[in-house]
Design brief:
Layout: E1 2-3, H1 7-23, H2 29-54, E2 62-63, H3 66-83, H4 88-105
Antiparallel strand pairs: 1-2
Helix pairs in contact: 1-2, 1-4, 2-3, 3-4
Length: 106
């Protein structure tokens, strides 16, 4: 699945995922699994965000395999309430991605 974003959206989404992982409560093995998978995705998003800002010709879209898309969907579904007050713009970007994943896999 390919998601097209602007540079600002990519940076905001990367920030939201990084901060969400930092504050995510890990209560059980399922949370640990989702956290581990999201950390890998977060690393990819951070690298892509940095590359886009240093080289404007870099494509701004992100590609997610099925596992990453479904993990992101589950994680964001659980984390949205924690994030929506402090990260309003980033949550709007994440909502767009969440809706795309929902249309693709639901």
């Amino acid at each position: 699945m390919r998601i097209k974003l602007t540079r600002t959206q990519l940076q905001g989404f990367s920030l939201l995922v990084s901060e969400g992982l930092r504050i995510m409560p890990i209560n059980n093995m399922a949370d640990k699994l989702i956290s581990t998978l999201m950390e890998k995705l977060s690393d990819r998003l951070d690298k892509k965000s940095r590359k886009v800002w240093t080289d404007p010709k870099t494509p701004k879209s992100i590609s997610l395999n099925d596992q990453e898309a479904m993990t992101l969907y589950c994680w964001y579904n659980a984390m949205r309430a924690y994030m929506e007050h402090d990260y309003q713009y980033e949550v709007l970007v994440a909502d767009q991605i969440f809706n795309e994943i929902d249309r693709e896999y639901a």
